[in-house]
Each structure stands twice: as C-alpha cells, then as structure tokens.
Request: fold
Amino acid sequence: MIRGIYAVVVLDLKRAWLDRVRLAVGLAQPLLYLFVLGSGLGASSKMAGSYRPYIFPGVLGLSLLFSATFAAISIVFDRQVGFFKAVLVAPLSRTAIALGKIASGAIQAFIQGFIVLPFAPLAGVPLDLHSFAALLGAMLLAAFTFSAMGVAVAARFTSTTVFPVVSNAVLLPMFFLSGALYPLQGTPRWMQGAAHFDPVAYAVDLMRGAVLSTPGSLAASGRAELFFFPVWLSLAVLAAVVSALVWSAVRTFNRGEDDSSLGATRINWRR
Amino acid sequence: MPRRQNFLQNANSPTPRLLRAGGATVLPLVLPAAPNPSLPPAVSVRGLVKRYGAVEALRNIDLTVHTGEMFALLGPNGAGKTTLFSILATLRTPSEGAAAVLGRDVVSERDAVRRSMGIVFQEPAIEQRLSGRDNLLLMGLFYGLSGAAARRRASELLERLGLTEMADRPAKSLSGGQRRKLELARALVTDPGILFLDEATLGLDVESRRMFWAQVRGFTSTGRTVFFTTHYMEEAEVADRIALIDSGRIVALDTPRALKARVGGGVIRLETDDNDRARLWLEERGFALEAAGPGLMLVHGDPAAVLPEILRHLPVKVHRVEVHEPSLEDVFLKLTGRGLEAELAAGGGRGRP
Reply:
C-alpha cells in the first residue's frame, strides 16, 4: 500500500518536474492579486495599506486551490492512454492510486504555495518562527483538502475538456465566498452563512490566523480580527472534509464494472 | 510449478538460446521444443462467456495453454480476441465460466495473477516524456520493488534488450522498434512467468518485428509461457500452437503444421469470367470447392497433377491461376468461409469496446 502510494507520487512528481516552468508561470497569478489587485483595491478601501497583508493568506489559498485542482487533471489524462494502462495491471490497489494522487496533488500545490512565501515581507507580512510554522501547517492541511477536492471530482470525469470547465465553475464561487479578498465579518449575513459551507473559507481563515498572530501584525494592533471561525471548528471541518473526499475518491476508483476503467462508468469511459 | 531460471541469467548461460552477433540478437537455427503438457497449464479457460449488453463477445470458450508454450490467438477484428485477452489480463471479468493463469483464478486471485504476468499492449503504455530508464524504474516501484532494486532491474533489462545507449533519452525520441522493445522491457520488469502480447508488433517494419520475436523467443526458452494475438500470419507461425477464433468461438486449435494439414496438400485459386459455371463444372467432376469469398478455392492433395487437366478442359475463360502451400489464411477461410482480412474491410470492430 505505502509502496503503491509512493510509486504514484514519484510518477506524478517526475512528470511535474518536466513542466517545472509551470511553477514560475503559476507564480504570476498570486503576485498579480497581491500587488496589483491588492494595491488597487487597498487604495480605495478603509484598510488602505493594511489590505495587502490582509489578502496575503487569501492569495496563498488561491495558489493552493488552483494548483491542487490542476494537478488532478492528470487523472483524466491517465485514463485515456499511456503509462497508466500498464499501472492498472500492476498488483496495486485502487485505494493506493487514489491516495497517491491526492498526496502528489497536495505536494505540488504546497510547493506552488511555498514559492509565494518569499514575497511576504514585500506584502508587508512579518513572519516569525512561530507564525511561519503555523502557516506551513495550515498550508499543508489546505493543500490536502484542495487536492482531495480535485481528485474526488476528477475521478468522475473522463473528458479533459469538461473537467476544467466544471472545476472553474466550482472553484471561483468557493474562492469568492472564502473571505480571501475581504473580511467575512463585514459581508451580508447570507454570505457569512454560505461561507460556513465552503472548505476554502476555513483553510484561508486558518492561514490568516497564523499570519496575523505575529506581534506587530494587523491583529496585534487591533485592526483586524484574528479568526472568523474558531480554530477548533476549522480544524474539525477540514479534517472531516478531507476524510469524506478521500473516502469518495477511493470509492469511485474501486467502482466500475471493468477494472480497466479506474472507476469511470462505461458511458463516459468511451468518450 | 517448474523451476524457473532467471531470464536474464539464462542469457549468459553456456547454452544460450539466442546467439549474440555483433551486439544484435539473432534467432538460433534450431528452436527449442519448450512446451511441456505434463506440467500444470499456464492458462486454463473453461466455459467462458462474455456479454456486452445483448452482444455475446465470447461464447463458451474452452482453452488450455501449456507451460512453456508460445501460443497464438488468431482471428479477425471483432472475433473476441481482445475481449479474451482482457479477461486473461484481469482487466475484464467474465460473464460466465472461469479462467486461470498459472493456476490462479483471474477474478478471485486477481492480484496474484497480476504479480505473475507481464503485458505488452497494442497501444503504447510507456510515459513518452520520461526516459526509458525512468519508465522501467517506475514500473518496478508499482510492482513493489524497492527503489534500489527497481533501479538495478531497469539497468539489467536495458542492457539485455540493447537499449542502454538510449536509456536516458525521452521515450518519444526513440524509434518505433526501440519503443516496442521498451514496452517489452516494461512487461518483463517483474520477471513474469507468463507474457501476454496484444498485437505487440503492430506498425513495425519486418526487421524490427523479427528482432522483437527473437527477444520473445528468448523468454520462452527459460520455461515461461507466451500468449499473443496478432494480425500478421507469419507471426502466428512462430507459435507452438494457434487458436483460431471467430464470432466468439474457438473454431480450431492446433499446431501451425497440423492446421495447415487440415487444408490438405495445396490450394488452387481460380478467377474465371464465369465462376458459377466453373464451380458447377468442377463439382460435377468431384472436386470439393471451399466457400471462400470471390473466386474459386480448391484444395487438393496434389495440385500440380490435376491443374493442367482442369485448365485444359474447363469450359470458361480463366483469368488468373494461383497455386500455393496452404497458409493459415486458407485454414481460416476453409473453417469459416471468410478471410481474416475481409472482416477488416467490412469494419466489423464490435469486439473492441
């Protein structure tokens, strides 16, 4: 089992390394949000100069969210042709494939998020050892959550053109409802309510709490609240979401009338 | 189970089955009589039925492949070749009946079967962007080898198949023949007891095909079994035994020589300007004609003796005469009334979902 997961992760990371230019390109989007949107919106908001530090964890969440779901596309590709055909006849449980895919997506997302961190001082976010460690922990949990989301959804798709469309349609609302770009405290009640059903909101909230806990940060000077959700609630919700999605992805992979389909049903497998 | 030697070690043993000449592997002059019916069968299929909805792709297949045998499954597209292959390869499950590979049931002992077999698919199953070495290394990991063992195994196989020089180039930059060899290497990563090849040489030139089969022969010489499907007649003839499959049934199963003996001494083909009249005339004189597509097909113990007589007296104009030793194509024609290729032209591909 562990070896199977390891093999899937090594395969995916080797392939991702061939596309390493994507890491650099993937950096453009968070920086754009942070320094262009952050400066523009910040100038016209009450938060002014403290807006950029405020959205920093939100932008990290954006980076993690999109890279994790992008990594999950490989499942859809793998179903079609190539190496995975041989992998499917290896004595390897479908559970190991699902867990390996989730782990490799999380690792790729984590790396993509990690390379945004050097820009923290530029964005006005002071990080000490304690907040840095807390932030890494929160990022790791977020990366696993988002990767499990991507895999659980991708496991149900066999079309490489449909999956990105669907994932974008789901991701953007999740991102906007997460409070990544504005404090949820000031939003209408329905949005606050909806945020309670958005795993991205809990992940962003944890990361923000970690970042803002540094002495001299926004929260310390009383200009922003540390957490929107209680920490225990965020941790519990994310743990529950990850477990549910892992269970769902594993179940999908083990499904299927024929073992060559990796869980795709006969109807969409042929496309 | 027979005691198996390591395929790689055997290549260096004092009596190698494959002779190495200038780095190239060539077929030895005498092929070993490897199959051994006294051992437990490598593949055993009983009453196998596979249905796709209302379509019966396989209808009550019974089949035994001996250990150490090179076994070919031959038939037109849509005959059920790929379905049978997929069931043996544990990728599909039978609707009825049972199949066992190396004594293990393909459904209830799926993982044990998977551990003991290697497969080369018709489609490429290597990661084209990664190097050959990485492909083999990863396959080793997927079969549960440790990183170091997988690396060692990859190097051994690359060396054995003469791919060391291009081992670190992306697979897509290799030639068609080299890529197929890499597929073979991938299938051999776990030193399997049986090798399944599905149209493995499709699209290769004659020389690359010859090289490929030489490598496969080397594999059977160590007491392992090869089960393959093919479209190329001359490839099927390298098999120890051939099963002809048509419309989901095994219509014949024998050695290539015995199959051809069913057709008899020789085959005469005639094309005339009035085939119906010629058919009638021949039948009146006691010649048995095969129901075989366009033209006339006649099997006779001594074609050279009767042909001049026929040509002299046939009351219609003859456009074309052909006399040849019976081929597997002729056997198939005789047994089914249809050619192997005819089905291709008719586009009968329903057996491949």
User: Anything to note?
Assistant: Residues 186 and 250 of chain A are 39 Å apart (CA to CA). Chain A is about 70% helix and 0% strand.
